[in-house]
Write a structure and sequence with these properties.
The strands form four sheets. A nine-stranded mixed sheet has the order 1-2-3-13-4-14-18-16-17, sandwiched between helices. A five-stranded mixed sheet has the order 11-12-20-19-15. The protein has a three-stranded antiparallel sheet with strand order 5-6-9, with no helix packed on it. It is of the alpha/beta class. Helix 1 crosses helix 9, helix 2 packs parallel to helix 4 and helix 7 packs across helix 9. It folds into two domains: about 280 residues, Zn peptidases (Aminopeptidase); about 130 residues, Aminopeptidase i, Domain 2, CATH 2.30.250.10. The chain is globular, with a radius of gyration of 22 Å. It is an enzyme of class 3 (hydrolase). This is M18 family aminopeptidase. Belongs to the peptidase M18 family.
Length: about 425
């Protein structure tokens, strides 16, 4: 039976399932780890010694909400280059504050803090749950995910007739979700404890609300991904930025044989939406440390490691912008990437993206080998350009990097929109990248 790289509809179904299973970065790392382990990849513990890296070796390591996985080709040596697909597991949204429960005018509410740069209005009037990890007083970590329990209610038009001409949300007062119609005595920690106990009932001591010593928990939209459009050509989903790239890299790593003498790597970092400055972010040491341990497993000295890095590549894959039909003036007047025309090469003269001429040539070559159409993105000169892990990885590791990604509408919305051909095309191109000598 052909793999997901060979069947678009199967790939889109699997991507939708991956997103549904990954409402937080911690869940995304766990979902990827489960898929890798099921395929025979060996889990590595950062506190233990790692074995020598042999041809055909497959492994992964999880650090908080990030995961790095690798697959060694035949004939690897101390100077073998790596082919890295870099992505991130986090998305903009809302994170649970400490001491979150409070009551206002008869409504039980929950205090949340804004994470990154979400489109705030897109989170209004949605059925929301809580997901992430909690750590109990004994130091044990538990992944948690509640049912739909909360909502950020919008003000009725009758109470503010100007909302349709200019909605302005106060980042403190207007985005605290409602949990219940009155003080019920059940707080959000009770719900998290219930969710922790539901993961593996009876296999561990029950968690009580008072056992929770710390939380890394966010709101998530409970609506599942859905194919829409006249021909089902569009996928409407949460967290396309950037689980679209994470899943593309995961699928390509599982299904593509690395070129002889190379090592294929998936590096899915956390905290990109905050600038990546964390131990599990692209500005942190995670990738550098893993590559160093893999090199040590090949017996590489500093000279061999430098030679290997000089012939290595990183594809920094992160979602980008399709031209918006209602706001066409926000895009470059001549470079007009559109949904369904293929994943994009992302360029920026000020190094907000790491692509250069060599990177453009590499990207076009792997797309041609995969039979995938591609297009180019560049910002309008008056519209600020976002950035990715690409420049950070190039700076920290010193590796040639090219920025690519799937075009979206509604980026940073609670629910984003992408074309299924672009989503599948990215995975196929990454597979060709991993297989390239």
């Amino acid at each position: 039976m052909p793999g997901l790289l060979a069947q678009r509809d199967g790939y889109i179904d699997a991507l939708a399932g991956f997103v549904s299973a990954s409402p937080s970065s911690y869940h995304a790392a766990r979902s990827a780890a489960d898929a890798l382990a099921a395929a025979g990849f060996a889990a590595h513990d950062e506190t233990a010694a790692w074995p020598a890296l042999e041809p055909g070796a497959r492994g992964f390591v999880v650090r908080d909400g990030a995961i790095i996985a690798w697959r060694a080709g035949a004939g690897i040596t101390a100077t073998s280059p790596v082919r890295i697909l870099g992505a991130h597991t986090d998305s903009p949204g809302f994170v649970l504050k400490p001491e979150p429960d409070f009551v206002s005018d008869g409504w039980a509410q929950v205090g949340v803090e804004i994470y990154g740069g979400p489109l705030l209005s897109s989170w209004l009037d949605r059925d929301l749950g809580f997901a992430g990890r909690v750590v109990t007083r004994d130091g044990a970590e538990h992944l948690v995910r509640t049912r739909a329990v909360a909502r950020i209610p919008q003000l009725a038009i009758h109470l503010d007739r100007e909302q349709n001409s200019g909605l302005a949300l106060d980042r403190q007062r207007h985005v605290q979700p409602v949990l219940a119609a009155e003080a019920t005595g059940v707080g959000v920690f009770d719900l998290l404890a219930e969710a922790a106990n539901a993961v593996a009932p009876g296999s561990a001591p029950a968690v009580a609300a008072e056992d929770i010593a710390g939380t890394d928990v966010r709101l998530y939209d409970t609506q599942r991904a859905e194919r829409i459009g006249v021909s089902g050509e569009l996928l409407a989903s949460a967290r396309m930025d950037n689980l679209s790239s994470t899943f593309a890299g995961l699928t390509a790593l599982l299904e593509s044989e690395p070129a002889p003498g190379t090592i294929a790597v998936l590096a899915a970092f956390d905290h990109e939406e905050l600038g990546s400055a964390s131990r599990s972010g692209a500005s942190g040491p995670f990738l550098e440390e893993v590559l160093g341990r893999l090199r040590a497993g090949l017996g590489a000295d500093a000279e061999a490691a430098a030679r290997a890095l000089a012939s290595s590549w990183c594809l920094s894959a992160d979602a980008g912008h399709s031209v918006h039909p209602n706001y066409g003036e926000k895009h470059d007047p001549r470079v007009r990437p559109l949904a369904g025309r293929g994943p994009m090469l992302k360029t920026n003269a000020n190094q907000r993206y790491a692509s250069d001429a060599h990177g453009a040539a590499l990207w076009r070559a792997v797309c041609a080998e995969a039979g995938v159409a591609t297009q180019t993105f560049v910002s309008h000169n008056t519209v600020p350009c976002g950035s990715t892990i690409g420049p950070l990885t190039a700076t920290r590791i010193g590796i040639r990097t090219v920025d690519v990604g799937v075009p979206l509408l509604s980026m940073h919305s609670a629910r984003e929109l992408a074309h299924v051909d672009d989503l599948h095309g990215l995975a196929r191109a990454v597979g060709a990248f991993f297989a390239r000598a």
